[in-house]
Amino acid sequence: MTEYRLLPLLPLDDDVVLPGMVVPLDAGDPEIRAAVESAQAKTPALPGIRSVSTAEVLIVPRVSGEYAELGTVATIERIGRMPGGRTAVLLRGGHRARVGDAGEGPGTAKWVRAERVSEITDERSATLAAEYKSEVVARLRQLGGGQMIEAIEQVEDPSSIADLAGNAPYLTVDQKLELLRLTDVSTRLERALAWNREHRAEEEVTDTINRDVAEGMEKQQKEFLLRRQLEAIRKELGELDGGTTGDDYRSRVEAAGLPEHVYRAAMSEVDKLERASEQSPESGWIKTWLDTVLGLPWQTRTTDVHDIAGARAVLDADHAGLDDVKERIIEYLAVRARRAERNAGDIREPDTTAPTPVGQSDRNSDTVPSSVDQRGRRSGAVLALVGPPGVGKTSLGESVAKAMGRKFVRVALGGVRDEAEIRGHRRTYVGALPGRVVRAIAEAGSMNPVVLLDEVDKVGADYRGDPTAALLEVLDPEQNHTFRDHYLEVELDLSDVVFLATANALETIPEPLLDRMELVTLDGYTEQEKVVIGRDHLLPRELERAGMEPSDVAFTDAALSRIAAEYTREAGVRNANRTIAKVLRKIATRVALGEATLPVTVDAGDLETYLGRPRHLPESSLPASTRRTAIPGVATGLAVTGAGGDVLYIEASLADPESGGSGLTLTGQLGDVMKESAQIALSYLRSHGAELELPVGDLKDRAIHLHVPAGAVPKDGPSAGITMTTALASLLSGRVVRTDVAMTGEVSLTGRVLPIGGVKQKLLAAHRAGLRTVIIPARNEPDLDDVPAEILAELDVHPVAEVHEVIDLALTPARVVQAA
């Protein structure tokens, strides 16, 4: 007969009590209180049911409202109050029991029949129990649970040892319920061992992670504290010596609105600064770099003015003459305005609702500047203003900036021999600085200024590199949008900068650099233009510098014309400016000594009083006997130098037959091209002497000498051929060259007159020298369109194709020579 026990049912939600466990339960729960009160009531003896001598209950797990089929018979050990005042009951689990049919008993609890469940053990149970017990004890030793170790070591029953897993907090309700249902002790121990080892493995991983996290947190906290202390120390030091701390630079960088790539580089340097010692040289280098980056106008741009009529008015007001140059500049501005108008229609409105990330450049979220083309880059020609000194190249750059409404900055390149002057120095060098281009942008205070690269033809090269090679990227619209300065080491967009270049001569500019620029030639001013410039520009400026009012001194046009013609023979007006300043100084001195009173009017006849006699009288104004061309063998040529057009005299002499010697001697520092021209001229005369009626038969026995004054000035160029031929023809024929005739052109062995360059500059030089007849190659006749009309009206220009035409025009008739 199966023995049943009638016990009050104590349901336990979402938890399991295994045999051997001691658990406190809240007696305030109605079901728990009812079960405890019912168990404490006397249970009557019924047939087949043993009466209970101690208060016991059957604890049955209830999961999701369903009762388990097995429970634990538990003894009520104690009933008392918790520290918070609530009533609690302490229960000790006894053995497993199967939940049977309902019964009747005292109290309000539900009574059920509890059938004791027998357990199965085998020879493995003891081994598994010892293994599990050792693992639990070892874990408790790590945790320092001394009393619990003693209690566990006293447990010998394998089933009780297996039920110890019920105290493990890492087991889930389902796992505990599985242990309760397993009556096979060995299986129960295997499950407990497996779960314990899984938990130990997870615990080790968690410990490792927690340890790493703790170490990281400790490191971060330590670093935070040290940084705070370091900031406090630096702040105190900064207040003492007026320095700037890394925290100040961090706030400045965050508030500067730098482009994203520049912001990242700057914050990286700020981190280095905060870690560096104040006594370290690196600290000073980093601060200098940050000051340089923060000093650049990353978000500053001027708005272009596209008023072409206004631009023309600005150029006309600032410069007299130079109509072709101003026309080219106006074309340049008109194309930029047209392109900006086209691109403005292609650009969509920006999304103003999207936030801009910290440090992100404002232009990334704004409309693209007006000069950006469809590829995202700015485009446009780089104008190179080429001309002699004093013609106004630099002032033209200022006028372009004024017409465009942009900032203007000048970069002097004369004598620069170090590539680092353009690209900047590496920061590892002492005294490193950014290149001149970056410094120019910082000086302008705008990312789209007009930058004038002055004297680009005087850039040199040595062992430190070639600056012109660095200028290739600066002036190339396809590359300069990612220009990288060696000092900054961040990309700088130069594509919206308008670059202008100035040069006196093109020969010294490398061909690759010249290919990136469009040449605009300034040939010089006419005498009438110099009068206008002197009256409207030079005189007012020099009066202000001399401390005089505009009404104190006046120059007549005749005086200004004489200064340009006889005192300052030049292509530009720089010497004219100095001459006017000299006259004003003389007048100021006389007024101070009481020898004159203001106002003063300076006429042409008064100039000798202030300046002395003229230094540049035209040949035509000299007596006939003192002119250079008064004797045979002297011809007047025209050349182009770094100072503009100039008059060049070529002299020829023929040695006496009895003196011995032969061949051609050349003096005057002539270049290879001019030497070849002299050889060609002599060869032509030898082969065509009979046609020209020249006595050339004895040339092989006589020495010929060609000299080009001044002997201390180097000369070269392909335009002196017909002048040398004319000088030799004059020498051989005994006919002098006409005083008022100048010529330019190259000669071939067949007697052809070949074209040359610089026609406008040469005609202006002839006009300044008082020469009224000019011989040029016939193929250069289209170049006369560039010469001012007033100059052509005063010159008699003869385009020729053959050398005999030159000789007929240049030499005086034979009968005139015979009469002399």
From TrEMBL:
Which residues are recorded as binding ATP? G387, P388, P389, G390, V391, G392, K393, T394
Name of the protein: Lon protease
Induction and repression of expression: By heat shock.
Transmembrane spans: none
Q: Which PROSITE patterns match?
A: LON_N, LON_PROTEOLYTIC, LON_SER
Gene Ontology MF terms? serine-type endopeptidase activity
Region named Disordered: 343-378
The gene name reads: lon
Question: Ranges for the Lon proteolytic domain?
Answer: 629-813
Q: What is the lineage of its organism?
A: Bacteria, Bacillati, Actinomycetota, Actinomycetes, Pseudonocardiales
